[in-house]
Specification:
Blueprint: E1 3-10, H1 14-25, E2 31-35, E3 40-47, E4 50-57, H2 63-70, E5 74-81, H3 85-94, E6 105-107, E7 111-116, E8 126-131
Parallel strand pairs: 1-4, 5-8
Antiparallel strand pairs: 1-5, 2-3, 3-4, 6-7, 7-8
Domain VOC: 3-131
Family: Belongs to the methylmalonyl-CoA epimerase family.
Pfam families: Glyoxalase_4
Length: 134
């Protein structure tokens, strides 16, 4: 893992959260994106060398909608940049971690992503991210 890529924050109202974080961070988001495969809308802010990702579910079967039905708004996941997501997935499987994806999938912000189950990561949902070459 090469870098803390971003913190993912689950929010109920993306517009209100975007306004709040714009004020808090003193900067506008650099990207807004809908991720149809995950049924989420996202907004990204740069904070130094890392990012904050706001996530709002767009349907009842979205993982974010389900998360917010059980828990309050807040940290949903921690994402780490990796150079080779396939190799990192194989390494983690070999170390006994449970992955939520058999293969990487396309995520927001031009990334291939895979998630590590919170039960095998001390209660934290971990996302692996690899930038897709243009």
């Amino acid at each position: 893992m090469t870098n803390l890529e971003h913190l993912g924050l689950a929010v109920n109202d993306l517009e209100a959260a975007t306004a709040l974080y714009t004020t808090l961070l003193g900067a506008a988001p650099y990207k807004k994106e809908h991720v149809a495969s995950e049924n989420v809308d996202t907004v990204f802010f740069r904070v130094g060398g890392s990012k904050i990702e706001l996530l709002a579910g767009t349907s009842p079967d979205s993982a974010i909608t389900k998360f917010l039905a059980r828990k309050p708004e807040g940290i949903h996941h921690v994402a780490f940049e990796v150079d080779d997501i396939w190799a990192e997935m194989a390494r983690l499987r070999g170390e006994g971690f449970v992955l939520l994806n058999e293969e990487p999938k396309h995520g927001a912000d031009n990334k291939l992503v895979c998630f590590v189950h919170p039960k095998s990561a001390a209660g934290v949902l971990v996302e692996l991210c690899q930038t897709i070459a243009d």
